[in-house]
Design brief:
The protein is α+β, with helices and mostly antiparallel strands and about 575 residues long. The protein folds into three domains: about 170 residues, no CATH class; about 130 residues, no CATH class; about 190 residues, Protein Transport Mog1p, Chain A (3-Layer(aba) Sandwich). The chain contains 18 helices and 14 strands. Helix 4 crosses helix 8 and helix 8 packs antiparallel against helix 16. It is flat.
Length: about 575
């Protein structure tokens, strides 16, 4: 019979006897304790960094204090941009969802807390590059009075401050929550005319497929039973903004494949546009088939919300069904290298003083930029000019204005003039809003001006840019066909900024910026000429063109500046 070596059993018995014989408070042999220490290290969960806890929390605490203090300074410096955004969220149904953007970003960051705990803050000096560029962008927005540009620059500066103080590894992990903050900026209103066009085209094509004769004139859809206007509220911009913000969140949470993420973002962009066209078509059909007993006024809004709510839920359902399947049994790792040790090495090379110095210099640069723009926007000295209405020769005559017709609403202007001129029984009305210098809330190019009327009284049936040759020179302007229940008007309007005419809001802002930087003429004006449509729009356009040939000066201006309303004048900027 083979014998079993006694050494194994002897060792086991020896260890067991030693464990039982070791009284409380006494230590085991040194070799055994080292062996157990190695075994405990191997058993350490990968989700927790090695090393003493206090050594990890101290850099985080200091960096967060610096970042929090710098953020408070940044929020104070940009308090006007923040207040303007909140005012838009509160007053516009299109941007009401923006109240939820910052809480969602914070929840996303909170969900990353365990992975962020594996890293330690390491200041990133090259973050100074985006800080300088974004400060210049903000300065341009401030000089040109473009609030949305200033708000985008503010969000980018806060993100750059995050990168500067906490470092790139942490910023990379928090990239989507930081990016998601851009959805809090109230932008997208400029897409309304394009969305109105798309909605009108969808409705017209579907009506023709349904066998209903239809005629499209701008935003006016005419069928045998009545007429419909694709107004700004029917453009679907509010549903588009909510859908894109929701689609970006869903793409981040449910998908890891970039191809699927892009596909979901594309669907979140396309589905609300198509669905809004189907909604408008459904409303037209309901009104047509019910002899206008349903799908009008409040029914219009109710059916729209109900239909697009179903479409949004359907889009979410598709995203849930197609979501990526994540293997939750596999441990999540950030890097093959120990991140905690790597970050501790970085902290040894990059002291927290870099964060303190960098954040302080950032605030100084921003405050200097704000002081420079404030000095550049100082109002010009001297009294306001005395504007004179243009003089016309026979057969044109000055006429009494019709107060019951179309009248634009301007905001923040320093002077406003209105004049009426008649030719052969037909009349044109001239409206001028003059700004001696442009500032926040008093701008020639502004969304708050109601050139197309306000409320349900007036609807813009057509808006298009045009260039007409008048008095031997090209004259840019925007043409609008406005209609109410009983009458319609043709309106030509344009901006005159820094001595130049333009019908482009973007070019108008560039001219405003140029005037401030170069120290040139800071005056600006919005000029609108309207004529009632009595027979057809072509006659009204011809009447306005003939008036322009009579009244327009050789330098493209329309008004004159004089010392009194009756005295001689000189050509003025408007």
């Amino acid at each position: 019979m083979a014998s079993v070596p006694q050494s194994e059993h002897a060792d086991e018995l020896e260890v067991a006897d030693d464990a039982e014989a070791c009284p409380r408070g006494q230590t085991r042999p040194e070799a055994e304790r080292r062996s157990e220490g190695r075994e405990a290290t191997l058993r350490r969960p990968p989700s927790h960094p090695a090393g003493p806890r206090a050594g990890i929390e101290t850099p985080w605490a200091r960096s967060l204090i610096i970042f929090g203090a710098a953020s408070i300074g940044l929020f104070f410096a940009f308090r006007q941009e923040i207040a303007a955004a909140i005012a838009v969220w509160s007053s516009s149904a299109t941007f009401g969802h923006a109240f939820f953007i910052a809480p969602i970003s914070l929840l996303l960051l909170f969900g990353q807390r365990h992975r962020l705990a594996l890293l330690q803050p390491a200041p990133t000096p090259w973050a100074a590059v985006p800080i300088v560029l974004l400060t210049l962008l903000w300065a341009f927005g401030a000089l040109a009075n473009i609030m949305v540009v200033k708000q985008f620059a503010f969000v980018g500066l806060w993100q750059s401050l995050f990168l500067l103080v906490l470092g790139w590894p942490i910023t990379r992990l928090a990239l989507f929550p930081l990016f998601y903050l851009y959805f809090a900026v109230p932008f997208g209103s400029s897409a309304i005319p394009a969305l109105q066009d798309v909605t009108a085209q969808i409705v017209v094509h579907l009506l023709r497929l349904s066998g209903i004769p239809v005629f499209l004139d701008g935003y006016l859809i005419q069928i045998p039973s009545g007429s419909f206007v694709i107004a700004e509220a029917c453009s679907g911009v509010r549903y588009l903004m909510v859908s894109v913000a929701l689609g970006a969140l869903v793409a981040h949470l449910l998908f890891r494949s970039w191809a699927r993420r892009i596909a979901i973002l594309g669907l979140s962009l396309a589905v609300p546009i198509v669905a809004n066209g189907l909604r408008a078509y459904g409303i037209v059909m309901l009104a047509h088939l019910s002899d206008y007993r349903i799908a009008v006024d409040i029914d219009h809004v109710f059916y729209g919300f109900l239909f697009l709510g179903v479409v949004t839920l359907s889009l979410l359902g598709i995203a849930v069904l197609l979501r990526d399947r994540v293997d939750r049994t596999a441990p999540a790792t950030l890097d093959a290298q120990d991140p905690g040790q790597r970050q501790r090495d970085n902290m040894a090379r990059r002291p927290l003083a870099t964060s303190l110095l960098g954040s302080g210099l950032t605030l100084v640069v921003i405050l200097l930029a704000q002081a420079w723009t404030a000095a550049a926007k100082e109002p010009p000295a001297g009294p306001l000019p005395d504007l004179l209405l243009p003089q016309v020769a026979a057969p044109w005559l000055a006429a009494a204005g019709d107060e019951t017709g179309w009248t634009p609403r301007f905001h923040g202007n320093d002077l406003a003039l209105k004049g009426s001129y008649a030719l052969g029984g037909k009349t044109v009305d001239l409206h001028v809003a003059y700004f001696s210098h442009q500032r926040e809330g008093a701008e020639a190019v502004s969304d708050v001006h109601a050139l197309g009327g306000s409320g349900k009284e007036w609807h813009a049936l057509e808006i298009r840019n045009a260039v007409t040759r008048i008095a031997g020179r090209e004259h840019p302007h925007t043409r609008m066909l406005l209609a109410s229940r009983n009458e319609s008007y043709i309106v030509w309007y344009w901006y005159r900024i820094g001595g130049q005419n333009t019908n482009s809001p973007f070019l108008g802002k560039l001219l405003e910026f140029k005037a401030l930087v170069s120290g040139g003429d800071q005056s600006a004006a919005v000029i609108a000429i309207a004529s009632r449509v009595t027979e057809d729009a072509q006659q009204a356009n011809a009447l306005i063109r003939d008036f322009m040939n009579q009244a327009l000066n050789s330098d493209g201006s329309l008004m004159q500046i004089g010392t009194s309303r009756t005295g001689a004048g000189t050509t003025a900027s408007p």
